[in-house]
Specification:
InterPro entries: GAF, GAF-like_dom_sf. It holds the Pfam family GAF. It comes from Mycolicibacterium insubricum. This protein folds into three domains: 53-215, Beta-Lactamase; 227-317, Arc Repressor Mutant, subunit A (Orthogonal Bundle), CATH 1.10.10; 319-422. It is 48% helix and 13% strand. The chain has helices spanning 2-21, 36-47, 63-69, 76-87, 110-116, 129-132, 136-143, 192-214, 254-265, 272-279, 286-300, 319-328, 332-337, 350-372, 376-384, 392-401, 405-421; strands at residues 93-98, 103-108, 147-149, 163-170, 177-185, 227-229, 237-242, 245-251, 305-306, 311-312, 317-318. The protein has a five-stranded antiparallel sheet with strand order 2-1-5-4-3, sandwiched between helices.
């Protein structure tokens, strides 16, 4: 009876998933067949452009380099004693990821390890939710809480034969997520007993790290460059901290955000006169620019900003830089995933407005090109963004290329509404 009930539930989940991915049904209609935590994850996975028919991709970073510097490396003996030792002949796999969802260590039953390789569940693979869809370690890191995913609850179809339980591990001093510990195997892995075991292991690891830090035997994490977030409706932020989690966000004024974006795009530096024109081609004078730069030094640190010309003294990362880099690399999925909305939408700087338009237009053109090549998922994600909601050409392309009646009807209705507002209806 249990097996029959399990198979029936798995079939219901597969059907619900297939209908949702095809655009035939809204999430609200899937309850109670789909748990809320899974439904929310499916929604985020689809919005991120995850392809349910592809395995997880590789991380852009060297797994050897990440392992060497990662704080969880010193806790491996604890994990191996509490989990791996019993997994080697139990048909299960133990995985440890970093905070970005990249798998660093995958150990356990040799046969199970070979089987999970077929879905690229291997060291160096990126199993973040935004890349691989719903899965225990990726979703646990997204929600920063323990998660169990049973078989067909996975977003990627290739992962359906497996169930998994994952618990995030936090820095005992800062509370910042360091990564996740995951147990992957058959249906029994998604049990309360397994969850208790993985939870206890995570606690033991955090206690081990706290003890090592107390005795001075832990080397601190390597320094990460400052990070600038300027995309979307959220307030712009300057974030500094460690590689294990940037932990010191500072909210920026609009003018300071404008300046930092411009300096990040001009590593050679900008004179006060040039900055004045880029920030406001009518009313801004050099004295005002110099006063703003003096205030900005107090925010980000005097050693990070030099003058004559004004320039950043060390490289920084930024969300706008990451999106441009993904577009340059031809990775439209990653670019769209990292684009929550336009650049500094409240800024009136002419240079920022030009850059905002350039980024938005480049991303839109890349999405439409991918749609023409037979990938409609990215276009749906673009049309869900504020600047895509009234994209008449985009909705027309979605309508003309939709194979499912519900998706075609939604696009047709949206087009009718846009035409009405424009007086074209």
């Amino acid at each position: 009876m249990v097996n029959a009930a399990f198979r029936a539930r798995a079939a219901d989940l597969r059907s619900a998933h297939d209908r949702f991915v095809a655009g035939e049904v809204e999430l609200a209609a899937l309850a109670p067949a789909v748990r809320p935590v899974v439904a929310g994850s499916w929604q985020r996975s689809l919005a991120s452009g995850v392809n349910p028919d592809l395995p997880a991709g590789p991380s852009a970073r060297s797994v050897a380099d990440v392992r060497a510097a990662h704080p969880l490396a010193v806790a491996l003996p604890v994990i191996r004693k509490l989990l791996v030792a019993d997994a080697v002949d139990a048909g299960v796999v133990v995985a440890v990821s970093d905070a970005d969802g990249t798998l660093l260590w995958v150990e356990g039953d040799p046969r199970a390890c070979r089987r999970v390789e077929t879905m690229n569940f291997v060291p160096g693979a990126n199993w973040s939710e935004g890349t691989a869809g719903t899965n225990a370690p990726g979703t646990a890191l997204t929600l920063d809480t323990e998660v169990q995913i049973l078989g067909s609850e996975h977003f990627a179809r290739v992962a359906r034969p497996w169930s998994c339980t994952a618990v995030p591990v936090h820095d005992p001093h800062t509370g910042v997520p360091l990564g996740a510990i995951d147990l992957t195997g058959g249906a029994s892995v998604a049990s309360p007993q397994t969850l208790a075991l993985v939870r206890a292991t995570a606690v033991a690891v955090e206690n081990h790290l706290a003890l090592l830090r107390l005795t001075g035997t832990v080397v601190g994490p390597t320094h990460a460059p400052p990070h600038l977030t300027v995309l979307g409706a959220d307030r712009p932020r300057w974030i500094t901290g460690a590689d294990t989690g940037r932990t010191h966000p500072l909210t920026l004024t609009g003018r300071h955000a404008d300046i930092l974006v411009l300096l990040s795009r001009h590593p050679e530096g900008l004179s006060a006169d040039h900055l004045a024109v880029l920030l406001d081609d009518k009313d801004l004078d050099v004295v005002t620019v110099r006063a703003e730069m003096s205030r900005l030094r107090k925010v980000i640190g005097a050693d990070r900003l030099s003058s004559r010309p004004y320039r950043l003294t060390e490289p920084i990362t930024s969300d706008i830089g990451a999106v441009f880099a993904d577009l340059d690399a031809g990775d439209v999925t990653a670019a769209l995933r990292g684009y929550p909305g336009p650049l500094l939408p409240q800024s009136v700087s002419p240079a920022i407005a030009r850059l905002r338009t350039e980024l938005s237009a480049t991303l839109r053109a890349a999405v439409l090109t991918e749609h023409a090549r037979g990938n409609p998922t990215l276009l749906r994600r673009w049309l869900d963004l504020p600047e895509g909601r009234d994209d008449r050409d985009g909705w027309r392309a979605l309508r003309d290329g939709a194979h499912e009646p519900p998706a075609r009807a939604r696009a047709s209705g949206r087009l009718a509404g846009i035409d009405f507002e424009l007086g074209l209806g």
